[in-house]
Every structure is written in C-alpha cells, then in structure tokens.
Write a structure and sequence with these properties.
With about 210 residues, this protein is an alpha+beta fold. It is built from seven helices and five strands; from the N terminus they run αββαβββααααα. Strands 2-1-5-4-3 form a five-stranded antiparallel beta sheet. The radius of gyration is 34 Å and the shape is rod-shaped. It starts with a helix and ends with a helix.
Amino acid sequence: MLVKLFGTRCEVAVHDFADLKKSLIHLAGCVTDRKIGSPITDLVLNELVKNKKEIEDIPSYKTQTSKGNIMKSATIFLRDYEGKVIGALCINYDISLLMQFGGEIEEFIKFDDQHTKSENFFTSVQEVIHGMVDQVIDGFRKAPSLMSLEEKVECVRQLEEKGTFLIKGATDYVASVLGVSKFTVYNYLQKIRTINEFQTEELVDN
C-alpha cells in the first residue's frame, strides 16, 4: 500500500529479528536491490545492542545505496506484547532526482540581493497615492501635525523622488495629510525642483 501511495521510488521492507542473517521477510518496491532473505542492516544492529527501553524509532534519516542514490529513510521497530523488539518496518525513498530538481528550483528562485526592490500591488489609484504617502510619513515617526517646516519639505522631497506627484490628485492628498494648502505643496515642489535642476547643471558643468 505504501509503495502504491508513494510510487516506484519508494521501498518498504519488513524484518523479522528471529534470524538476523536473513531477517528480510517482505519487500515491496526495489530501491536497494535487496531480495527476500537479505541480512539486517548495520544501523539496526547498532540499535539492537541497546537496552530494549532505549531503542526508539528512527524517522527521516539520510541513507545511500551501493549505486550512490540518496534516500530518505525511516525505521519503525516492531515489538511483542512484552515490549521486546522482534522486527522492523523500514521505508526508503529515493530522493536523488528530487535533489537534482531541488538544486534547479533553488537556482530559479534565487534573487539578486544587489537589486532587491520593494513593490506593492494596488487595485486603485487612491491606494497607490495613500500607500506611498503612508510609507514616507511612517519614516518620520511622528504625526504630520508635529512636523517642522523642514520635515514637511523633506517629506515632499521624498515623495517627489518616488514619483508620487506624477499621479493626478496626489498634491491634494499630500496637502491634506500634511495639514497645509495645496499651494504650499506646490511651493515646496518648486523649491525642490529648482534645487535639483541647479545641482544637475553643476554636475554637467563639472
């Protein structure tokens, strides 16, 4: 049932510890190339030398076949009514191909950390304006009513830098948030743009 559930890359083995030399009594799937009558594994032997109360199931560990295939394995110990370990149910799943896919997927989902950008996706123009203004205002860590003149100008400068005023209606909203008139915002923008043009001309001249 487990092999049918997980497919041909899965192998399920049942061991009977009555004879460790040929403990493998049932095998479904063929990942390790073993046959009925194969001996117990060294990992199980390492567990069997322990006190029976110390022997615990081993979930999700890495193993490798003689051909070099990597497997994800699990061993569940079977006990009798007295708690004595009498056998084991072992599950091996060949993850070699998944590891290859994993490497390719990791390569695909990797980002260029040098060009990490933040982008929000809005459903309306109002959301765009409100989102950009909120982002800038939050950076000042104070209510707009408590901002100094210089801080309000800096706020407008940052919004200008982000392209906020390219959107029609942005000036009115910014003015309402800062508690000034839209003409005041226009004055801020005029000063900021004049300074930017002057600095650009200086760079060109130099």
